[in-house]
Specification:
single chain; mainly alpha; 3 strands; 6% strand
Amino acid sequence: MDDKSPDILGVKSVSKALEHASVKTIDGISAFFGAICMPAAEEFGLMLRDRVAKYRQRNLESIAEKTKETIERVQITPTGDCNPRLIHEVIEQGSWSEDACVQQMWAGLIAAASDTSAVADDSQIYTETLRRLTPFQARLINHVYGDPRCCSLHKGTIVDESLYTPKNSLIYPASELLQLYPDDLSNFVNIAKTTHQEILDDSSSHSIALGRFRPQVDALVTLGLFRDARLVNAGKDRMHFLPSLKGLDLYMRGLGYKIYPLEAFIVTQQHWCQLKGIDPFSHGRT
């Protein structure tokens, strides 16, 4: 039935424009996911129209765009048979995240899975972990595992988790870790009348600020994404991380790669460092 009520404020035209934009967004997302997961293309289109509102549409659009960029960067040729369970998890879980770093990890996961058969692919096993990450945790994972020191490991087979211990210790000053927080620290850290920049600049505030992040760091250890993470030095203004194979694996998938065994990925990281003129074995920090 036509709505013939007066539109004094011109709201109807705006509403129609938004509705048109929403349809275009849904069609674009549906076409992209359908192309990398052809068997379930129609189902994804129906799901997106029926169950995903505008907030989640924007997030999915961003994930889809980041996935395209990752596929191009990693030079993947999608086969069209990405595991439908993975895309379903992205729509149901990944669409709630508006953080660019978390979205990029979802995008890398999709990209890495887009060139393999639905039967053989195992990417969906990472979704439970990924959907639980906060923006700070995602940045921390990428910061540590992207550190050249993380691949300061001599060639050899890692038959035991303890053997994945870089030659250069992964120790970071509090100020460096606090800068990973994507929002205003003053709204998160309980120091009255202190601004974001003052927290970063005042070393006496660092241990308090790090303590506020302790539950998130401990959760990463509980999830197995780090073997350990502890404060060091008398002033407790630095944190030492012991990496884990599970954490390295998630980081790699978030980049859009599947390189196994993981020792091969570490060698690949060393090669990337060499291309940048960086020697991981001499990249120590005091």
